[in-house]
Structures are given as C-alpha cells and as structure tokens.
Amino acid sequence: MLYLTIFICFISSVLLTPLVKKLAIKIGATDKPNYRKVHQKIMPRLGGLAIFISFIIGMLILSPEQKYTVPIIIGSLIIVITGVLDDMKELSAKVKLLGQIIAALVVVLWGGLHIDIINLPFGGALSLGIFSIPFTIIWIIAITNAINLIDGLDGLAAGVSSIALISICGMAILQGNLGIAIMAAIVLASTLGFLLYNFHPAKIFMGDTGALFLGFIISVLSLLGFKSLTFISLIIPVIILGVPISDTFFAIIRRIVNKQPIGAPDKSHLHHCLLRIGFSHRQVVLIIYALAAMFGLAAFIFTMATMWGSFIFIAVMLIAIELFVESIGLIGKDYKPLIKFIRNRS
C-alpha cells in the first residue's frame, strides 16, 4: 500500500501541475522578469499547490497515526495559503513572516513539537527551558526561508528539497522512525512529479506556495527525526540542509560586510555566483544538486563517526565550505581571508 500511495502522489502531481498552471495564469499568479531574476518572460507560479494537494492525497490514503500529523497538515495549510496569497498579490515581508509564525505555532503549541534538552558531548545536558519554544519556532522559520531563498533557478529548490527529503527519509529508516520516513517519501514523490515541469527550461515555477511549503515541511520533519537531541545529532539536520543553510548564512554575512540591511534582496546568491563564473543555467542547477547530495552523504557518514571523529569531520567541512565560498565570491570578490592566508603560508 505504501509504494502504491507514493506512486499515486507522484502521478497526482504530474496530472495536477498543468491544471495549476492554467489556474495561475487565470488568477494572475505570475512571475515577471526584473533585474534580480534570471528568467526573461512572464512565468506562471503557484506550482507548489500541486505539490501540496498531492501531499494531502497521500496523507489521506495512508493516514499515519502520529500526534503530529494533524498539526503538521494544519500548519502546512496555513503556510500554503500564505504562499498562494503572495504568489497572487506579493505580500509584504511582515505579513509573510506572520503566516510562518502562525504555522510554526500550530506545530509547536498544538502538536507539542519542541526541543527541551540537548545532551552535551562531554557529559551533562543543556536545558533550553523557556527558550525551547522560541528555539523551535526560529528553526522552522529559518529553514522555511532558506528554501525560499534558493528558489532562483529552474528546478533548483525542488531538486535540492528532494535530495534533502531523500536524506531525511533514509536517516529516519535507519533510526526506525517509519512515520517520518513515510511522510518524507510522500512529499518527495509529490515534489518529483512537479519537477518534471519545473526543470530547465521550466514551464511553471513553484512560487512561494511551493518554496514555503517545502521549507516548512522539511524543517518540521528534520526536527521530528532528531527529537531526542544530543549536540552531535543536532548537527545532522544542519548538514542535510547544508546548501540552503549555507547560502542563507553567507547572504547575511555578505549584507553585514557590505553594510546593507539583512533583508535586502540582491543578486549574489550561490546560483548567481556560479552563473557569473560562466556556468550555464542547467550546469549551475546540476552543480548545486551535486553539492546537496554531498551534504546528504556527509550526514550519513557523520552518524557513523566517533565523537572526536565528528569534530574533525565538522572542522574539515567548515574549511572546505569557506574555501568554496571565497573561490566563487559568495560574500564578495575581495573577501578571501583563508585563501590569502594559505597563499602567504606557502
């Protein structure tokens, strides 16, 4: 029944996406070209609605019995409504943030999903206390927006999200969290069905409807999979989501270095930098897919490492990320402290 449901979700997404495309054009949910965007013509968005409906179909068929199921569905509905309104009317950042906070509160307060204690690697535990709920809400909102920020090229957010979902599903199976694995597989199948229309050259964009939904559901699933947290296991979902988290983190650093507002839009995200270097649209997407897959594989390797091995692994990853960031100019053309240090030492 599980495999049949996953197949149904995939086919539902394949069949629904053209219908959603027609709806997007009819209601004016379109994306117009501007100086920050890569596409050169008006494109229908709202494609995430097909992903969400396919996800709901899968959930209705399987009806996974978990206390989080209904809150996740309600929270997802709120985030999708926020995305649909934004795709139609371009909501202000404050209104979008409000929708995200409400969706997160549904999962945290109604569903009871929040991290209370983090076990430290050298003994003892860190109790988050009154910060437990804010910590969880911030995580959900941060990942939701991280997926939204990388949605800049055909098939990019859908592909990176799919790779993250594969990693979450695999990790959940290894840990025996079959409910999380099933939910991740349903979202994955729904996303892959949409990706057939979204890969370059795209026929439809997922819009904020899709980016916010995928970011929200991935953030929640990644927390559910590692609810009994140690300091080390806290790192695992961060590694799985390495591409969107890194791009968001360095976007913040870039804006601080350039003395710009943190929320200011720019054209210097990871995909923009790779395009400037000379890679084609399709090549950039495939390169970022490969990076996302490497992070996913790294997460699996990380779970098998010893404690000291984990710290060494993190250190090597951070150095590699910094070198990559400096080499492509993600923060700025002149920002190359580590490369300059290596050159001076040699």
TrEMBL record:
GO BP terms in the entry: cell wall macromolecule biosynthetic process; cell wall organization; lipopolysaccharide biosynthetic process
Positions contributing to Mg(2+) binding: 148, 208
Subcellular location: Cell membrane
GO cellular component, one term: plasma membrane
TM ranges: 6-25, 46-62, 68-85, 97-115, 121-143, 155-174, 180-197, 204-225, 231-253, 284-305, 311-331
Keywords, in A-Z order: Cell membrane, Magnesium, Membrane, Metal-binding, Transferase, Transmembrane, Transmembrane helix
Record-linked Pfam families: Glycos_transf_4
Domain of life of the source: Bacteria
Gene Ontology terms for molecular function: metal ion binding; phosphotransferase activity, for other substituted phosphate groups
Cofactor(s) the record lists: Mg(2+)
Principal location listed in the UniProt entry: membrane
Membrane topology type: Multi-pass membrane protein
Protein name: MraY family glycosyltransferase
Species this protein is from: Heyndrickxia oleronia
